[in-house]
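Incident log, support desk, overnight shift.

02:14 A customer reports that sequence design results differ from what the structure should imply. Their input is reproduced verbatim below. On-call engineer (initials T.W.) acknowledged and began investigating.
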């Protein structure tokens, strides 16, 4: 049985793109990714204090999933998470390493150390959205689309989930990007929902689509890459 893509969200270049439309954007003047994500959080009026305790990878995942899942009704066990990345938890690893590198200033923080496990990012999403289904993250240099499709479809075909958050997320000293998309059982689809068959070509089209820009108050056009 095949599945269909029913929603997607991209965060890159100080921009949040939901289903092909920019919903938040800043100029290149944002100091860093941490500042940008905090600005998005405040702009959307979210009330979730735990956000400020998360590492940068979890914050990026949080923002990417937030609007994509907003107003969607689902049972926690019916939703799965299948993500991949290249750099694992490198930013938290670097932070932790700095705290233990010199004997004279040796002071590791448990709050930092816990995020050196990349699957904690998945845990943060599961807690936020009450997801109790299958969740996993693959570490690959490139986005392995066939593996992504086969794994998530396996879960759907065997009724281990009805919907699945898929995608790629990376944060490193060189930059960042998150691309999430939501798939659903083909037969369960509402005919009013815009949908795409879950194929490598369609994933590629969504991931690298030309963005339809619009202007609104508090949105500033930008075409640069924000670095961590």
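02:41 Re-run completed on a clean worker. Output:
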């Amino acid at each position: 049985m095949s599945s269909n893509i029913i929603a997607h969200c991209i965060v890159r270049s100080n921009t949040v793109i939901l289903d092909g439309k920019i919903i938040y954007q800043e100029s290149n003047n944002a100091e860093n990714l941490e500042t940008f994500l905090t600005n998005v959080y405040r702009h959307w009026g979210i009330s979730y204090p735990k956000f400020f305790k998360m590492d940068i990878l979890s914050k990026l995942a949080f923002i990417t999933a937030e609007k994509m899942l907003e107003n969607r009704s689902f049972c926690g066990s019916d939703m799965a998470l299948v993500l991949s990345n290249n750099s694992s938890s490198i930013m938290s690893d670097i932070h932790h390493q700095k705290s233990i590198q010199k004997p004279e200033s040796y002071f590791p923080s448990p709050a930092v150390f816990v995020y050196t496990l990349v699957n904690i990012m998945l845990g943060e999403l599961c807690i936020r959205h009450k997801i109790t289904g299958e969740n996993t993250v693959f570490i690959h240099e490139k986005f392995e689309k066939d593996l992504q499709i086969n794994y998530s479809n396996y879960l759907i075909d065997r009724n281990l989930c009805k919907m699945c958050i898929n995608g790629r997320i990376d944060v490193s000293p060189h930059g960042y990007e998150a691309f999430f998309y939501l798939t659903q059982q083909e037969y369960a689809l509402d005919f009013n929902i815009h949908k795409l068959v879950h194929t490598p070509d369609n994933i590629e089209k969504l991931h690298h689509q030309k963005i339809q820009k619009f202007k609104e108050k508090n949105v500033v056009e930008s075409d640069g890459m924000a670095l961590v």
